[in-house]
Amino acid sequence: MKDVMAVVLAGGKGSRLEPLTRDRAKPAVPFGGGYRIIDFTLSNCLNSGLRQILVLTQYKAASLSRHINMGWQNYFCRELGEFIDVAPPQQRIDEHWYRGTADAVYQNIYTMEKYDPRYTVILAGDHIYKMNYEKMVRRHIENNADLTIGVLTVPLDEARNRFGVMQTNTESRVIGFQEKPDVPAPIPGNEGYCMASMGIYVFNTRFLFEHLCRDATKTGSGHDFGGDIIPSILQTNRIFAHPFKDENRKDNAYWRDVGTLDAYYEANMDLISVDPQLNIYDGQWPLRTFQPQCPPPKFVFAAEDRRGYALDSIVCPGTIVSGGRVERSIIGCNTRVNSFATIEDSIVFEGVDVGRHAKIRRAIIDKGVSIPAGFEIGFDSALDRQRGFMVTENNITVIAKTDGVEHFLPNSEASQTDMPNTESPRIKPAHFRNAVKTVKY
After folding, report:
1. I want to staple 184 with a disulfide (CB 3.0 to 4.6 A). Which of 104, 159, 164, 170 is the partner?
2. Domain limits at 103?
3. Within the chain, what is the greatest distance between any pair of CA atoms?
4. Quick check: pTM over 0.85?
5. What is the side-by-side order of every strand in the sheet holding 330-331?
6. CB-based contacts of 201: which residues, under 8 Å, 6+ apart?
7. 3-class DSSP state for residue 33?
8. One domain for residues 324 and 178
9. pLDDT tens-digit map of 409-434
């Protein structure tokens, strides 16, 4: 693996995850309480022996860059030729930002050439899965391949207009490829499924550079691996498929594209089940991330009517559940759940303050939001929409950092039509919304 460089594509907007991607790139979105989405791909690299990693960023990359610098640099030693570097668009060729997945790699050829890797692994930084890339590289070398593509077996309805779909011969050589077709070609003998690209590629590096440079000169090209590079080499070069081999060690292979808010919510909620599909406690395939220096979580008050506890939940360090109740939820670091507050079936990010008697159900609360005392979220979808909050198709209420949830005194006389004159001390909303509810103890 010393001859292999990993290039992680981490510049996507993640527009379907709005408002969670309003201030951060999709790979930087928190997952499972203490992780970021990109941590799964980077952990796969480290566990696979990949020690030369280039992370290509683009949109709203500050949070992602900070996370990698704080959480991942210590695992690599430059004196031994190891590194993880974050590379925004270099614009060495022209003034364009990345125009496609292939163009993103093309713009960084100069950086890659300095390390002269024999093989290049192209990865996406926004999927949740466990995979040993070394096995795929070995398969690539054994087949004397120019390109090897990681593949999943996916139901036809799920693959339509979403995945690149391929056909192979008995030796796993790719003989047909369609990028996000309306009618995916089924697997012979397994008509309800197709062979879908994971967006994971192993290239011979010189071969990759040659075809990236050739594609860059083509007018009308989308400069994309699935849409342009693969179709252009399919008939003339050795392309093989590598079936996804899951390191999660469960009955069913686990791979998730948490590209929508509902998919993101369901993938997180799986983690709090008795036997989750994704095992994050597996010491044989450890997941790494940045761990802030926080005290252990704390649960205070044992009185029957004011008991702080959490059931069927994940509670991260630094959190205090002070006489509140947390059930079937994921609570991020340094969050405060005040007395008599309840949180159910929800995902709460880092640094959230939940006021007394507040009630939260089936919601996603972004980092640093302060929930006023007595405020209710997730109980009335129409009211949540009226307040300006995002409500998904599955009735999950999502509150971003700038949605204007404000603190008010318990005896405030403000009505639902009153606008506050001062900003919350905890957040700086871009504009205020009708999110006020009078509370009296």
Report:
1. 159
2. 4-270
3. 75
4. yes
5. 314-315, 330-331, 347-348, 363-365, 397-399, 390-391
6. 121, 122, 147, 148, 149, 150, 225
7. coil
8. no
9. 333 333 332 323 333 333 333 333 33
